[in-house]
Amino acid sequence: MTQLTTADKIGMYVGGGLIVLGVVVIGFLEMLLGASHPVTGEGQIVHEALVPIEIRSTIILLGLLLWGLTAIYKLVPGESVAQQQESSQLAD
User: For the residues 25-37, what does the mean pLDDT come to?
Assistant: First the structure.
């Protein structure tokens, strides 16, 4: 149970990649290429994001959802190797 399967690796790497993309990469792009955040005469900050917040939050939520599904996949009890061997021996 300690070895990672292909499904585990896909879930962890893709989920983590989406979260890093949504938080770190897009955040870094916003810092480098984003708007200067001018202040209006009324004191209100005008913010025009390079990547809309809806898209950024959706990317992060998809990563978290994938991590959650991977965790549920790991927690759901499956048929163990010993049970598979017993059932094959009983069938013979």
Answer: 84
**Domain boundaries along the sequence of the chain:** 6-75
Model-level pTM? Answer: 0.72
Q: What are phi and psi of 45, to 5 degrees?
A: -85, 125
* Residue 47 CB partners (closer than 8 Å, separation 6+): 35, 37
Check pLDDT > 80 for residue 53.
yes
CA nearest to 11, candidates 67, 90, 52, 92: 67
Looking at per-residue pLDDT, the higher value among 66 and 79 belongs to: 66
**Could you tell me if 66 and 11 are in contact, meaning their C-beta atoms sit under 8 angstroms apart?**
yes
Closest by CA to 33, choosing from 49, 19, 17, is 49
Residue 39 pairs with which residues in a beta bridge? 45
